[in-house]
Amino acid sequence: MVLNIYKFKVKAFFGAFRASKASIVLLLAYVIGFLPSVFGFSVMITNAVRQGVYSEIYTEIIAAAASGLMALAILLALRGYTVFEYEQNFIFTSPIKPREFLIASIFTDLTSSLVFANPIFIICTIVVLWLNLSFVSALLIFSAIVLFTFLIFFLKISLSIIKALYRRLWVNALIYILIVILLLPEISFFTDLPLKYILMPYPSTFLARILIDGLYNRVTHPINFFSLILYFLLLTMLFVLSSKRNFFPVTKHVPFVSPFDTTMRVQTIKMERSIKTFSRIGIFFTLNPESKSLLNFLMKKEIIRMIRDGTLFTVILIYLITSFVTAAVSARPSEGLSTVLFLTFFLGIYSLIVPLTLISNWRFSDFENLWIPLSSSADMRIIMKAILYDFVVTSSIVPSILILILSIISSINPLLPLTLVISTSLIGCSATLYVIIKFLGRKRRGTPSLLIGWASMLFSALLLTPTYILVALSGFIELNNIVNILSSALILIYSALIMRYFEGKIEKNIANIEI
Amino acid sequence: MIPIIELIDVWKSYNGTQALRGLNLEIQRGEIFGLIGPNGAGKTTTLKIIVGLLKMDRGIVRVNGVDISEEPFEYKKLIGYVPESPSLPDYLTVEEFLIYSGKIRNIPGEQIREKINYFVKLFELEEKRRVLIVSLSRGMRQKVTIASALIHDPDILILDEPFIGIDPVGQHVLKDLFIERIKEGKTIFISTHMLDTAERLCNRVAVIYGGQNVASGDLKNLQQLSKTRENATLEEVFLKLMEEAKEQIVEEPIEKRRRGIFGPLGRR
Fold it and tell me: Under CATH, what is the fold of the domain B5-264?
């Protein structure tokens, strides 16, 4: 029974992948795209270990990341036990027992995690091989990762069931307290308070110690491994107890979400929820039929959409996190990296996510509505222009404001980060919108959004190469201000030209969309 | 008289499925024309080709005498379209959506306001005027879509299952509105499964099956063509025509196209 449900769930998760032939090519691009990062990370870790520079900060960082994962899993439990509609309709109406369903669910989650988290396993394998670690060290590293993974699954499932069964205040309080306890030592990154992960008896701390000791080929204290096992056993017991209860009638159903799922219906349901949440803020803005310029009118309409479906909030959140991390680093100058370099490095990594977020949300929220202008005599070129301009404005203004604030607080020259952000915005938005529209042709419509997004990010990053080169040069070789300003201007002209090129391509392709 | 909509030998296929196989249709100005057929007969595909949401593989479509392949935008000024289960911008209010529909058709602001006032009253949407579309029921969404299709007072109204989800009072209002428009010399092209409605409302009907026009005309013509009794209902005529069509139309495999590296070669 468990195996049958597992197969069913895995097929549901990956099923949509077969909808388009392009998926295979894009999956390959996903794997290849990760290779340089996998290789880079492996080299970085191996070199650090070979140089023999052991620092407690490594244990602290790994423990903090693992605690963050645990806190996220606990936070998700706040929703209660959620299932997909098809599970409620087809599985819960069969004679399957809750525990059988839970075991099948854990293995499905593991299978799907393996697909997306495979770079982590590849990095671990490369590092173990390059460092020529002993069999015991390698075994300890892998066992600790597997134990910790199951530990997170058991924790999340047990708390979700408890939350679903007992909708009381104490459950919420328990969840929040656990999250606070887990995240509290993060304060040590920003202050000198002696509240460090390495001093705490957390499962994440034991995991971090085992990993670091393993990497340095040192014999880890048995207490680390036994403590992790103890936590694992405790949570297994909690899982066994909670899985005895019939939680099927108290589950909440959520729209089926698979990264390979291409059905717009699902994404539309998700968007409907966001609209209901965010529309209260955006309802203050409205459209004016007397507006003289159609382009301005359409741009305003897009801005209203971005406010009301939560897109703008997501963009602000992404950059707030970036600013928060940068501010945290600049508060610890002793770590060696200059604020401007760190900010630029961080922006380089994350700023491409913003155009993708903007365009993906537009796709889910508004693409199906294109039948309205397409079946009218509306000029599609103006409509697409309004969308593109709004994306560029949003993805450049939000971070620019944050960069300017940061530059004032930290007294840094904002030229480099600003050039990077504006160039990324011009190239990223236009190239991503073009790729998405290209993939919306009927023949490729089945291609999963995740893979299209990945391909468009790779494509944009390729076009951004001159920008990255300039930023790297300016960062590491101290160029004088005039050269910096001139080269930034050149980069912005190059970016504007690329955007203009894609604008033309989008205008041509939009007429070929079939809805 | 030139037909207001004319389809000549229209073919359309989706990946591996032949949706239309040489469809011919003629719709005259000032009539309510019904398109009926079983599921998968090609009704929605036909409407979408006319409004420019799908491209035909071959054939000719003329709207008001203009070949839409040669002039793919201007003719749309004459058209108002209501799809089956339309997707609407949920993040806009009813009023904002109607303003958007009017603006993209270059209608002056004042006229848009007048039309909005008229339609929200007609469809009893006054209370929902400033409510987000996401909160509307299916029937209300349908009414809003119809209002948006009529905002520019089009000569041709193309409707795909327009009565689905609308309450009986709303359906009555809608039928009166259609009759009113016909009196003004406008044309209405409806695709529907509701045969009794089609019988009462439409001047002429086309029955399609397997992407082909099996029979078209008024009820009298159809009764003769199907050799049913003199006072046979449209439903009886339809069932008889379907029986005959199933025997006559043999499913043929879709013509395989030669494929090059970058896609199909030698498109028809």
Answer: Rossmann fold (3.40.50)
